């Protein structure tokens, strides 16, 4: 059986599994189930959170980014895991005690303000849409690979599937579907990683293998990459070239954004007790860390394999995968000096580079580069789709409930019927899919970079508003609203200016304090904190009722029943 | 001691735990992984080819994060019982 046949088979089987689980869990996760005080177990919720969280960016794009960036890619590893420490220590237990359904619910009730609620809704939609856009490009790349179509068509096919999956099918009880998706995606990530680790480093544990020696040459892998990188004109793999201050700001923006992402926060309403919310974050982080500690190993193996098989080789004898990715234009070769050999060179080299490789293809191409069996390639495609679909579903749920629940039911149309709420949710999810597909097609950049912007926006809006709402009794609505507005407006303006209005100016010497658009969310968060604190001191303190509410969420006892938002 | 004072004491103990654990969180990621990465890179992780700073940035910090969250869960479960604010 060939690669295409295996891919169809495994992808179909995995979809069958998700549909089966969805039908089974629909019966057992009705509202009564939650009212009965059961909720989802912390372990299952941790797994669902991990699937919700680990998107196409984590699965497809991240190891590829790291394999090109080397040490500089560490920002994604630390940033996307370190945020869970903040979530566990600063936010999740208190939001679980607060109960309710969504993040705008908390903001609206804590700050006793319809305006604050609407500002939070707008921020949630803005953050989630940027994020879904990144997923769509990821799905497009997976489809372009195994259906052999251009990325744009791949995005359109992905839109159709997400539409059926999330909009027509409804999203009741997505928790257990996400548990199944986690299992598929982690299997799809680990199997090729272990295979390749055995082949290259002779060690079945990738996390240890990439610190070892290459079996064929006996040279330490990381030393070999440092040497090859320097010879070919790239920055040394383990040292990188990004400015230290910028590394600092990007890592912080990703961590703070993680803690402020609405689709992750809502997951902690589904567990029975406050202490389960704490445990649940811990499990989520374990499940995420399994992938995140494997990713840098995959990056090193992929880089070594790529340089071994491509660099300096004759173009005539390139392997199949090379030609196939060339067809979808994600690999481009131009024989500048006409010698028939592939010169793959970095920015510090004197001769011209002849090869362009899209970073997003590395994880998908890796099993083929390493000559792994065809079924492994199919498994990786299924894993990539699981990652993209589970995250897209979680995000669409946030977008549609933001509109139907926060904006209409708790906002402008209080009398709305349950059926009306459902219709509004479906319509807004459909709009979101179309808009996200448009973002995915317009090629904003690499999946992980697009997603990184969503984090900057979340860091600069929600994180301070929620944190101050819990840890400061003095924080009032005037402070919170002005903080959120200033924070997200500054961050969005900075990103839009450097990425779309004036992309030529996107160079380190033009950046404010040398902070790149990826890291500016940290500055936006600082602005949010400063504005909120100053404004709240100049305006009256919140009511006694709110101060009592803050007292109450700090104590675990008396938490209400578990919830899962549905649409 | 009154209920209100007990609650305040519970909260300040919680905040002390959070500050202590977040100091470790900051030290392993921003400290070992970014600010002091060059000096640490002169040392190799014993028994492997990893430069220490690079290892902290791509592996070590993540392991410590996981440990920190589990430590917090344990500390808080004990504190909840001690101050009788636990559920059930």
In short:
The complex is a heterodimer of chains A (567) and B (88). With 567 residues, chain A is mainly alpha-helical.
Structure description:
The complex is a heterodimer of chains A (567) and B (88). By secondary structure, chain A is mainly alpha-helical. Chain A has 22 helices and two strands. Chain A has helices at residues 3-28, 31-35, 42-53, 56-69, 74-98, 103-110, 114-146, 151-168, 174-201, 206-209, 221-232, 244-260, 262-265, 274-310, 320-327, 362-369, 374-412, 418-441, 447-471, 477-501, 520-538, 544-553, and strands spanning 331-333, 355-357. A two-stranded antiparallel ribbon of chain A has the order 1-2. In chain A, 59% of the residues are buried. Chain B is elongated. Chain B has 88 residues and is mostly helical. Chain B has three helices and no strands. In chain B, helix 1 (3-35) runs antiparallel to helix 3.
């Amino acid at each position: 059986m060939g690669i295409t046949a295996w891919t169809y088979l495994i992808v179909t089987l995995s979809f069958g599994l998700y549909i089966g689980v969805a039908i089974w869990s629909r019966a057992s996760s009705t509202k009564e189930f939650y009212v009965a005080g059961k909720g989802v177990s912390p372990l299952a919720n941790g797994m669902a959170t991990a699937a919700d969280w680990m998107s196409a960016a984590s699965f497809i794009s991240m190891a590829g980014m790291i394999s090109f960036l080397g040490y500089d890619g560490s920002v994604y590893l630390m940033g996307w895991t370190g945020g869970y420490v903040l979530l566990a220590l600063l936010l999740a237990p208190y939001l679980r005690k607060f109960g309710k359904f969504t993040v705008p619910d908390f903001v609206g009730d804590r700050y006793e303000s319809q305006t604050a609620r609407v500002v939070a809704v707008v921020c949630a939609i803005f953050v989630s849409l940027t994020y879904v856009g990144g997923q769509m490009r990821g799905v497009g790349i997976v489809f372009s690979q195994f259906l052999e179509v251009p990325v744009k068509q791949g995005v359109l096919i992905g839109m159709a599937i997400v539409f059926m999956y999330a909009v027509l099918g409804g999203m009741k009880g997505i928790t257990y579907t996400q548990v199944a998706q986690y299992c598929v995606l982690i299997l799809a990530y680990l199997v090729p990683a272990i295979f390749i680790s055995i082949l290259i480093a002779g060690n079945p544990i990738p996390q240890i293998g990439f610190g070892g020696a290459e079996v064929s040459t006996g040279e330490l892998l990381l030393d070999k990459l440092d040497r090859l990188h320097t010879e070919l004109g790239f920055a040394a793999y383990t040292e990188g070239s990004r400015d230290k201050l910028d590394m600092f700001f990007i890592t912080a923006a990703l961590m703070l954004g993680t803690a402020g992402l609405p689709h992750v926060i809502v997951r902690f309403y589904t567990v029975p007790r406050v202490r389960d919310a704490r445990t649940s974050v811990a499990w989520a982080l374990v499940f995420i860390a399994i992938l995140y500690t494997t990713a840098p190993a995959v990056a090193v193996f992929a880089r070594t394999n790529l340089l071994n098989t491509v660099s300096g080789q004759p173009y005539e004898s390139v392997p199949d995968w090379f030609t196939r990715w060339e067809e979808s234009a994600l690999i481009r070769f131009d024989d500048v000096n006409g010698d028939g050999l592939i010169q793959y060179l970095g920015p510090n080299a004197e001769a011209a580079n002849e090869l362009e490789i899209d970073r997003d293809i590395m994880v998908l191409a890796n099993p083929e580069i390493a000559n792994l069996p065809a079924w492994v390639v199919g498994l990786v495609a299924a894993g990539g789709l699981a990652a993209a679909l589970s995250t897209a579903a979680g995000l669409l749920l946030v977008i549609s409930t933001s509109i139907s629940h926060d904006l209409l039911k708790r906002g402008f149309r209080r009398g709305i019927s349950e059926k009306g709420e459902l219709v509004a949710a479906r319509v807004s999810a459909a709009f979101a899919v179309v808009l996200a597909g448009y973002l995915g097609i317009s090629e904003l950049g690499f999946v992980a970079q697009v997603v990184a912007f969503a984090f900057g926006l979340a860091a600069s809006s929600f994180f301070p508003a929620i944190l101050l709402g819990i840890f400061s009794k003095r924080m009032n609505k005037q402070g919170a609203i002005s903080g959120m507005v200033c924070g997200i407006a500054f961050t969005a303006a900075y990103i839009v200016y450097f990425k779309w209005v004036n992309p030529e100016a996107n160079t380190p010497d033009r950046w404010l304090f040398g902070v790149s658009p990826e890291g500016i969310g940290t500055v936006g968060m600082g602005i949010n904190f400063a504005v909120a604190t100053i404004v709240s001191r100049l305006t009256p303190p919140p009511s006694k009722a709110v101060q009592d509410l803050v007292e109450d969420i700090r104590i675990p006892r008396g938490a209400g029943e578990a919830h899962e938002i549905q649409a | 001691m009154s209920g209100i004072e007990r609650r305040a004491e519970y909260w300040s103990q919680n905040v002390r735990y959070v500050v202590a654990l977040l100091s470790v969180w900051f030290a392993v990621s921003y400290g070992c992984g970014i600010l002091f990465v060059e000096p640490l890179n002169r040392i190799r992780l014993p028994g492997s080819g990893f430069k220490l700073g690079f290892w902290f940035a791509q592996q070590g910090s993540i392991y410590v994060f996981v440990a920190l969250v589990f430590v917090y869960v344990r500390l808080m479960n004990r504190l909840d019982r001690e101050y009788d604010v636990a559920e059930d």
